[in-house]
Amino acid sequence: MSPKSQQCLNILISISKNKSTITYGDLAKQIGVAAQGIGRFLNEIYDDITINQQLPDITLLAVYSKKTYGLYNSAGRTAQSIVFDPNDPVQMAQYLSDRQKVYAQWP
């Protein structure tokens, strides 16, 4: 994992301990990258943590500003393979359930 991705992961673990979320912009600012560039680090974390280690998707803690959700919930599939639809009650329930798994994994 790259140093920036590790830094990002450490921040997400800290956020999880507070049972909270962080905006993409704030996360990018904390690791010193442009907001538009945060996705590559989140994808690297997702691939390592969720795909390789089969742990909950900690990248779900990164969200849009003014919203409580992010763009994807790939549910263990390839990163960015499932665009999250917050208006779909089934997807929303899965998203919230998956986020609770993150909080349980990193209390």
Structure, described:
Helix 1 packs across helix 2 (24-31). The protein has a two-stranded parallel sheet with strand order 1-2. It has four helices and two strands, in the order αβααβα. It has 107 residues and is mostly helical. It has helices at residues 3-17, 24-31, 38-52, 89-105, and strands spanning 22-23, 62-63. 51% of the residues lie in helices and 4% in strands. It has one domain.
Topology at a glance:
Elements (H helix, E strand, L loop, with lengths): L2 H15 L4 E2 H8 L6 H15 L9 E2 L25 H17 L2
Parallel strand pairs: 1-2
List keywords for this structure.
two-stranded parallel sheet; mainly alpha; 107 residues; 4 helices
Read across the widest sheet, the strand sequence of neighbours is 1-2
Report the C-alpha radius of gyration, rounded.
Answer: 13 Å
* N to C succession of SSEs: HEHHEH
User: How much beta, percentage-wise?
Assistant: under 5%
Low-confidence stretches: none
Summarize it.
The chain is 51% helix and 4% strand. With 107 residues, the chain is mainly α.
